[in-house]
Amino acid sequence: MRRNNFIPRGRGRNVRPVLHIYCEGETEEVYLNAYKRFKRYSCCEIERSHHTDPVGLVEEAIKAKNTAPASDSFWAAYDLEDMSLENKRKAHVEAYRLAEANDIHIALSAISIEVWILLHFTSKPGRYLQSDSAVRALRKYYPNYMKGNGNVFNTLQHLIPDARRNAVNLLHHLERDYMDKKPYELNPYTAFHLLLDAIDLME
């Protein structure tokens, strides 16, 4: 596992802030790395993590943040998955509690990252209880879709403006109709476009 890519800060140096992203899944990591290369961004680091659970990702981000320059920002990107399991629900509650207390941002997708990808094609991604159902729905638009496929970003690049617009509209409706709900209580839901916005603002 590679080390966190913090840019060294020396006395008297004027170094730009860095945005660090900890991903649960390979699909998120591949998409974000391709987005970074396409934009030629240098102040964004997709950090490799051995954690796949929400709490572990957030705790890893907190640990890194505690030794990083105050100007750096930290995100965790992960999926909702199966909320019918009590331990999963408690993990999301705890992850958000830790994130809010330590200024860590979360890019949650419900039920999975495939909801964000569906928004490249439709404004109504649907509510899914399992990620496999979202994958099947996505393949109606993108028959060759496979999790972790390195070509996903290149295939969908021209549709990103549509995905962002659809995600903004979805979030607007959710905030209007479920204003008292936490993100992990919503389905469908994604904050992936907010992460892309944050990356863009770093450059």
Characteristic key phrases:
single chain, 203 residues, alpha/beta, Rossmann fold, five-stranded mixed beta sheet, 8 helices, globular
Can you give a write-up of this model?
The structure is a single chain. The protein has one domain: Rossmann fold, CATH 3.40.50. It is built from 8 helices and 5 strands; from the N terminus they run βαβαβαβααααβα. Helix 2 runs parallel beside helix 3. 35% of the residues are buried. The chain has a 5-stranded mixed sheet with strand order 2-1-3-4-5, sandwiched between helices. The protein has 203 residues and is α/β, with parallel strands linked by helices. The N terminus is likely disordered.
Layout of secondary structure:
Elements: E1 19-23, H1 26-39, E2 44-47, H2 54-65, E3 73-79, H3 86-102, E4 105-110, H4 113-118, H5 131-138, H6 152-156, H7 160-177, E5 189-190, H8 192-201
Parallel strand pairs: 1-2, 1-3, 3-4
Antiparallel strand pairs: 4-5
Helix pairs in contact: 2-3
Provide a quick synopsis of the model.
It contains eight helices and five strands; from the N terminus they run E-H-E-H-E-H-E-H-H-H-H-E-H. It has helices at 26-39, 54-65, 86-102, 113-118, 131-138, 152-156, 160-177, 192-201, and strands at 19-23, 44-47, 73-79, 105-110, 189-190.
